[in-house]
Amino acid sequence: MATKRSKQLAAAATPKQTVQQIWLAGLGAASIAQKRGGDVLVRLVAEGKTVQTRSGKLARELGRDAAAQVNGALAPVKARVKADLGKAGKAVQQGIALVLSKLGIPSKADIDELTTRVSALSRQLKAR
Question: Is residue 103 classed as helix, strand or coil in its secondary structure?
Answer without folding.
Answer: coil
